[in-house]
Amino acid sequence: MTAPRKTFLSVARRPKYIGGLVFAMVMAAAFAWLGQWQLDRAITKDEPTAAQLESKVTLNLAFDQRQVYIVDGRLQDGKSSYWVLMRAVADDGKTVTVALGQADSLLQAEAARFDIQNSMMVQMLRPTTGVWLPSEEPQKLDAHTRYLLHSVSIPQLINLYSPDQPIAAYPQFLKLCRACQPVIGSTGLNQITGAIQPASGINWLSAFYAIEWTVFAGFAFFLWYRTVKDALLAES
Fold first, then answer.
1. H/E/C letters for each residue in 21-89?
2. In terms of Cα–Cα distance, which of 80, 198, 60 is closest to 130?
3. Which of 58, 74, 135, 174 fits a 20 to 30 Å CA distance from 94?
4. CA-to-CA distance for 230 and 126, rounded, in angstroms?
């Protein structure tokens, strides 16, 4: 009497392959969670509410004119613009990133940066009023123009401010509520209004990672399937 022909299901029901399926499900769930996390990071969050934008704070800041950066891809009245950022230190010793103003072109932003770095600023604490805005996702820096950023990422800026030593810093950045002239002198910058998020609402690197984790989740099940299939072929 011939033995019954083995099937994929008969092999898959063995304890070790059931255990393998459970392990694959756990791994797939973990990969799916990582994919969801990356997808959440890939999509720009909603802009702050009107109440948040109206919540002003005043800090005593000493500005560091050596640390001036430009952020591209911003929106100002529906048009792309450039923000000029500057490092400051509050009276509690913590670093504050201040968004001074915006320019319509990179040339204007670079001219403002040059004027700030070469101005005769007195290093003293001065009251500065603005609103806190959340840090954004870091973007890859340009190799030759490291002062040109593609997002306002506080961790990334901290690494630029002090690459060798850790520093205390506020986790948000401060957007001035008024024109920057009273704070840093005449630079030709305009007050930042309108949209505060980057022009692109999608972080494509995070979106790619989300797809990658989803593929890994599917591969966990495929690997279990191939293990059972190979066992079946070996016993046939």
1. HHHHHHHHHHHHHHHHHHHHHHECCCCCCHHHHCCCEEEEEEEEEEEEEEEEEEEECCEEEEEEEEEEE
2. 60
3. 74
4. 73
Q: Give residue for tokens 């072109």.
A: 105
How far is the C-alpha of 189 from the C-alpha of 83, rounded, in Å? 9
Q: Parallel, antiparallel, or unpaired: how do β-strands 79-90 and 126-133 relate? A: unpaired
Average pLDDT, the chain: 82
What is the chain's length?
A: 236
Which residues have a Cβ under 8 Å from the Cβ of 99 and sit 6 or more positions away? 83, 84, 85, 130, 133, 152, 173, 174, 175, 176, 192
Whether residue 159 contacts residue 166, with contact meaning beta carbons closer than 8 Å, is answered with no
* CA-closest candidate to residue 130, choices 63, 43, 74: 63
> CA-CA distances (angstroms) from residue 152 to 7, 70, 101, 142, 182?
58, 9, 13, 15, 23
Which pLDDT belongs to residue 37?
76
First to last CA, the chain: 17
Q: Are strands 148-149 and 57-76 parallel, antiparallel or unpaired?
A: parallel
Residues 6+ apart with CB under 8 A from 176: 98, 99, 100, 101, 128, 129, 130, 183, 191, 192
pLDDT in tens, 6-56: 788 888 888 898 998 999 999 999 988 888 877 776 665 544 554 555 568
Q: What is the pTM of this model?
A: 0.60
Contact 152, 108 (CB under 8 A): no
Using CA atoms, how far apart are residues 192 and 24, in angstroms rounded to an integer?
50
